[in-house]
Design brief:
Mean pLDDT: 80
Distance between the termini: 25 Å
Largest sheet: none
Order of helices and strands: HHHHHHHHHHHHHHH
Shape: globular
Low-confidence stretches: 1-19
Length: 287
């Protein structure tokens, strides 16, 4: 019996604690879910490699080509002129989390088709806790990928102005990872078959990534298209990028913090309702 199955053993839970659950039971369940996600990530080495290849292509190739084309003025949180590769680094960190959130939602669709999802959702523990634990597991995996990217970027001399930036950015990565993972989880509840996932993701990932401040500052976007700049400002991914950008330089963008926190609550609430078989999308699909 696996760690996850032990943590979700319905009969043993029901016999040991008929009056309710203690924090130990919640901890055992969360540990089983996180450990299962970690094992899946370890066994899928190509997933780790692909997660690094995407941002490194932008860092090593596109940044070299765009460096002389896209001039950057002094904008917060920067105190001086910076190279283009320094500007896009927070956006590439957020891109890793965006793709990881969609990969985690893909695994949920696969588990649902294979029947593994039932093992998780029939647990007597609250469904919101099960989904939040799944979300936490995916977020931790994405943070490991982000720091692996930062390690490679360090050899390329792409570093914040202080080593403390690697510490202060961690809370921002946790919150942005939660938001993007919750978005992927909510979308996965509406996808009926695994084959439909790629098409749906193309309408989510690319508009969110390119219509944001990840690759270019919004003041430059506004010079070319004011309406597109307005759309970028309403894009939650833009605020995830800016939250990471300011945190990497030991500052807080309070507007982005409020937007990311609010979107996290909305997306997670929507996912919890959608995965409720009595009232969510799964009920309309027949489980």
């Amino acid at each position: 019996m696996t760690t996850l199955e032990q943590s979700l053993d319905i009969s043993s839970l029901g016999q040991e604690m008929p009056a309710g659950f203690t924090w130990k039971h919640y901890a055992i369940c969360a540990r089983g879910i996180i450990w299962r996600e970690a094992l899946r990530f370890i066994h899928q080495r190509e997933r780790f490699v692909s997660a690094l290849v995407r941002p490194l292509v932008w860092l090593f190739i596109f940044a070299a080509g765009f460096r002389s084309v896209l001039g950057l003025s002094i904008i917060p949180p920067y105190k001086t002129y910076i190279h283009y590769q320094d500007y896009i680094t927070p956006g590439l960190m957020a891109m890793i989390q965006l793709f990881n959130g969609m990969q985690s939602s893909l695994s949920m669709i696969y588990d649902r088709e294979m029947g593994n999802m039932r093992t998780l959702l029939v647990s007597p523990l609250p469904r919101w806790f099960l989904l939040t634990s799944k979300l936490m597991a995916g977020t931790l995996v994405s943070i490991m990928q982000v720091y692996a990217y930062l390690l490679v970027a360090w050899f390329w001399n792409v570093v914040p102005d202080s080593n403390w930036g690697y510490v202060t950015v961690l809370p921002a990565l946790l919150l942005s990872g939660f938001m993007l993972g919750a978005l992927g989880m909510f979308i996965s509840s509406a996808i009926k078959q695994l084959e439909n996932f790629a098409g749906v993701m193309n309408f989510v990932i690319f508009p969110m990534f390119f219509a944001s401040s990840a690759l270019y500052p919004l003041w430059k976007v506004r010079m070319g298209s004011p309406w597109l700049a307005d759309y970028c400002e309403f894009n939650p991914f833009t605020h995830a990028v800016e939250l990471i950008r300011f945190a990497l330089y030991q500052q807080v963008n309070w507007t982005s913090l409020a937007v990311v926190a609010g979107c996290t609550v909305i997306f997670l609430t929507g996912a919890i309702i959608a995965y409720d078989p009595s009232r969510g999308m799964l009920a309309r699909k027949g489980g």
